[in-house]
């Protein structure tokens, strides 16, 4: 710490402060993240290990790591200073004036490259949001902040429960399913949507409304002037079932939008073209040794493969001894219904309307069909009242922050991109989705739902425990 001069405090996040610092020996400015370490011994080792490891990702679109050290109960991570700040600040500066398509596509393609890099190393970001994506003075996008979230997730003694950031969290997380590579894709979809509209796709005034919208994948369509490829991409990134979302590899190589993204990506950065039926071959292209090393470093946590094929190229390190082959899990064919079942019973929802009305809307452009009053799915699970009752008891700090549950705080749900908070709850049975049925053909990316974290964190359990303690 002594070798740095603190120039100023840039800001405060959920886990500590961000300081602008300068080494005493030179003039280059760096950001120093100061993270309060958990008091309990147990989590410290893995907190340090994970933060350092994940901060060491080297890629032009990932915030560069300089060093990390501990001092006085804090973990310090020194990283590249992105002088243009984060994307959320940048969007606010627009004062409602939309970004040009080429700016959106350039930034998004760089985000994809950063995400591709970490996914290739079998690492998940878990907290992708516009606040964690930065811009340099050269206009380059840098993904940041994945070290601290992971570090704190594994810090068992920490008196907070890490979930992610509610506004960016995918349906499977609400349903207590493991985080997987497609969960990062959902969050990336939220950021892309924000860049396109300067609004968040799932704005809400209450937990119930937010979760309902996320779990239904219900969002206001993108403006019609945007290329149809972006409409198509957003639609697929917001598929409620992770198996139907494209992987980062698919987005960059074979997705319809890749043609547009390629204009902003140099040849050597592009993933090599592969035929779709080769998930094993694709896995082989990942640097297996690095993936295993990363998993080993992650405190013996393993990263499981989750797909429909047997993957012989990446094994859970703990299974390597016995030479067992990790069998990929199957995603259920239907989206997970647990949360929706709960919400269906909540007071914002009245009885279902099963009629489907289709009508053309001249303002939405040719070929758009407005789907209204879509048939409600029939859920066959028992209603898990638990989630809703927990949420009712648990006030939350701002839902745009990395979510930590503070039992005594009672801040309202607030969306920073919202101009004003309208009560925009979706009326029962009405989907605000405009579908160009000819062009937006659904497809499955089941084959590239590649991996999930085995260190599944049951946040509902944690929440329940915390509530009991108070
Ligand atoms: N590498 C960086 N370069 C420039 N600014 C940064 C950098 N890292 C963080 N910041 C800024 O520092 C402030 C605090 O960031 P921090 O990551 O600690 O929390 P946060 O992202 O605001 O919140 P949360 O912890 O909920 O994600 C933010 O305004 C962020 O834009």
Automatic annotation (TrEMBL):
One of its GO terms (molecular function) is ATP binding. It catalyses: L-seryl-[protein] + ATP = O-phospho-L-seryl-[protein] + ADP + H(+); L-threonyl-[protein] + ATP = O-phospho-L-threonyl-[protein] + ADP + H(+). Its cofactor is Mg(2+). Residues 310-330 are annotated as: Disordered. Residues 310-324 have a biased composition (Polar residues). The keyword Kinase applies. This is non-specific serine/threonine protein kinase. It comes from Ictalurus punctatus (Channel catfish).
């Amino acid at each position: 710490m002594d070798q740095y001069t603190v120039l100023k405090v840039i800001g405060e996040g959920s886990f500590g402060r961000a300081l602008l610092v300068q080494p005493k020996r030179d003039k280059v400015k760096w950001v120093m993240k100061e993270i309060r370490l958990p008091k309990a011994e147990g989590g410290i080792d893995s907190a340090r290990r994970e933060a350092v490891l994940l901060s060491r990702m080297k890629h032009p679109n990932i915030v560069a790591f300089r060093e990390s050290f501990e001092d006085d109960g804090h973990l310090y991570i020194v990283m590249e200073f992105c002088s243009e700040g984060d994307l959320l600040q940048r969007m606010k500066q627009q004062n409602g004036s939309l970004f040009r398509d080429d700016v959106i596509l350039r930034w998004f393609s760089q985000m994809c490259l950063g995400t591709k890099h970490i996914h290739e190393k079998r690492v998940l970001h878990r907290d992708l949001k516009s606040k964690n994506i930065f811009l340099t003075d050269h206009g380059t996008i840098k993904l940041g902040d994945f070290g601290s979230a992971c570090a704190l997730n594994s810090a068992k003694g920490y008196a907070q429960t890490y979930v992610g950031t509610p506004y960016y969290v995918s349906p499977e997380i609400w349903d207590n399913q493991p985080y997987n590579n497609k969960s990062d894709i959902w969050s990336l979809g939220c950021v892309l949507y924000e860049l396109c509209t300067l609004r968040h796709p799932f704005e809400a005034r209450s937990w119930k409304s937010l979760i309902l919208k996320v779990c239904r994948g219900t969002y206001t369509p993108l403006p019609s002037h945007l290329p149809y490829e972006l409409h198509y991409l957003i639609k697929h990134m917001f598929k409620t079932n992770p198996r139907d979302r494209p992987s980062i590899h698919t987005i960059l190589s074979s997705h319809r939008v890749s043609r547009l993204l390629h204009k902003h990506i140099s040849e050597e950065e592009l993933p090599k073209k592969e035929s779709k039926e080769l998930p094993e071959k694709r896995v082989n292209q990942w640097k297996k040794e690095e993936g295993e090393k990363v998993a080993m470093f992650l405190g013996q946590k393993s990263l499981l493969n989750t797909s429909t094929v047997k993957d012989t190229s990446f094994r859970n390190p703990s299974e390597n001894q016995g030479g067992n082959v990790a069998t990929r899990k199957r995603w259920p064919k239907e989206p997970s219904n647990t949360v929706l079942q709960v919400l269906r019973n909540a007071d914002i929802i009245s009885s279902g309307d099963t009629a489907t009305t289709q009508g053309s809307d001249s303002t939405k452009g040719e070929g758009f069909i407005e789907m209204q009053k879509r048939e409600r799915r029939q859920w066959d699970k028992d209603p898990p009242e638990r989630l809703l009752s927990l949420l009712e008891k648990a006030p939350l700090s701002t839902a745009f922050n990395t979510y930590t549950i503070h039992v005594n705080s009672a801040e309202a749900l607030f969306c920073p991109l919202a101009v004003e908070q309208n009560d925009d709850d979706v009326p029962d049975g009405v989907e605000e989705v405009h579908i160009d049925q000819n062009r937006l053909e659904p497809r499955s990316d089941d084959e590239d739902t590649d991996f999930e974290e085995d260190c599944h964190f049951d946040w509902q359990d944690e929440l329940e425990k915390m509530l009991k303690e108070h």
